[in-house]
Design a protein that fits this description.
CATH architecture of the largest domain: 3-Layer(bba) Sandwich
Number of domains: 3
Distance between the termini: 35 Å
Number of helices: 11
Length: 426
Amino acid sequence: MTRHATGTGTLPHSVAVVGASHAAVHLADRLRHGGYVGPLTLVSSEVHLPYQRPPLSKAWLKGEAASDSFVLRAADHYPGNDIEVLLGTTVRRVGREDDGIVLSLDHTDGSTGTRRFDRLVLATGARARRLDIPGADHRDVLVLRELDHAHRLAERVAAGPVVVIGGGFVGLEVAATLRGLGVEVTVVEAGSQLMGRAVGAGTAEFLLAAHREMGVRVLLDVKPVEIAVDGDGVRAVRLADGRDIAAATVLVGVGAEPRTELAEQLGLTCDRGVVVDERCTTSDGRILAIGDCTVQEMHGGARIRLESVDNATEQANVAAAVLLGCEAPERPTPWFWSDQGPWKLQIVGTAGGHTDVIVRTDPDKPQRRVSLYFEDDRLVAAECVNAPADFVALRSALARGQRISQDDLADSSIPLKKLLGSVRSA
């Protein structure tokens, strides 16, 4: 794996973080807790205090939480820790000057300015991917990535049927939430299974049945070709096979595109994201990048994107250590989760190169399922549906590199917690 140079190793005089979501806020806190006392600035194009994004498709949409209930930190946290937060501020241009970085800023009040910093961290995140079909630019064709998007979607709940284009995590979370509110929902997925890039076929089939049981209409192997408009409103989503699916609102959930514009201005290597090494260092050896904007180089030269709160936290930990001149912590096994109505999906590890799969079910708990993925005889990943205790045990086992017999794991009558505990103590 390419390892980029790490600069002088001296503590920075000032740090700018472009972006103010989970990765950025966690990095700022780690720097302060680690003893960094210099100027520390977060730059956010949004006007809201940094907030959690997972509730947008669930608690917020159901009206169970006000926007101020899922801010990442209370308003007084930032001045209390001498963290400057520039809200409603866009970085128009970034450039190098001597040994530092200069940001050209545009503010929502119309003012502009420049700021110079010693070190730069890109936490620019990703934007929701849009559709390039007729009608996709209509105001009632929405995405869900930011709080303002969630406000708009919530306003449309009572307007009539919703078509969700894309059967990934966000689309399915929204579909389940809307069904719980009594909304007629259709999910349109171009692939042959739900969550095709994230889970195995068995887990996808299990959750497909779950969504249909909830009353969500799910269409696979179908491609939207037009958003049909009648007067001022959306009327339907037209499919390639000629069918029209009635809709008053369309939510597009077909993935996200990393925001790499600033990295490209700086001449940093980008490949479907800002390329970083295991120290979150970009190709120039000095600028760091964390969170959803990044692509990580792995052993063997492969590059992967990990979009999750866990990844944001771990990359922030690493970047803080690098800026503080400390040894970077070893990255634990990545994990993810998705709450889809009453169905909780938890994933640990990556199953891309698996050779075997073991599925554990319980006739007395039909809503529970665990899929275990092996490369030869080594457990590499697990998908747990409504099995949080098993997820915790498996995450711990993967963190330890624990070897477990496939024959033992295939016996669903033995609880995983007991099996993994006995192996650990053996």
